[in-house]
Amino acid sequence: MPYTRTFNAQARRFEAHFTGKVTADEIVQNYMEMIQSPEWGPDVVRLIVIEAGSDLSDITLGLFQNRFVQLLEDTADIAGPPNKNAWVFESELTAPIGQLWELMPQTGELDVFRVFRTRKAALDWLES
Q1: Dihedral through CA 99, CA 33, CA 58, CA 51, nearest 10?
Q2: Sequence-ordered list of residues with C-beta below 8 angstroms from that of 56, at least 6 positions apart, any chain
Q3: How many domains are contained in the chain?
Q4: Residue 75 sits in a domain of what CATH number?
Q5: 50-108, pLDDT tens digit by residue?
Q6: What is this structure's pTM?
Q7: Beta strand 13-18 with 3-8: parallel, antiparallel or unpaired?
Q8: 8 Å CB contact between 88 and 60
Q9: By residue range, what is the domain housing residue 87?
Q10: First to last CA, the chain
């Protein structure tokens, strides 16, 4: 499994780090584990870090438009209202895939999502 996840109870924040070959199944698994955990609540924010050197070649526009949008729609009752979700792409080579999701109209309706290049910038936004 190329991701690790922690929960900071004081900050009410999940933080996941993805490395290596990142698949849609792993992104979905991480999301489902978070929203089904006892720590989950409407005040919880998410920080997702795609580490430098990660391979996102399996993540496509079609995947965003179909699987990820459908997942957010299907889990809205479990997840509750959209909460802040910051993704940090450490490499400029992988950042465009996150920026694509950020620009999709459905994202604004289903998620409060922003893309960052640094963890610090992402944390500043999550804490604002």
Answers
A1: 60
A2: 22, 50, 94, 97
A3: 1
A4: 3.30.750
A5: 999 999 999 988 888 889 989 999 999 999 999 999 999 999 999 999 998 888 887 77
A6: 0.93
A7: antiparallel
A8: no
A9: 3-126
A10: 32
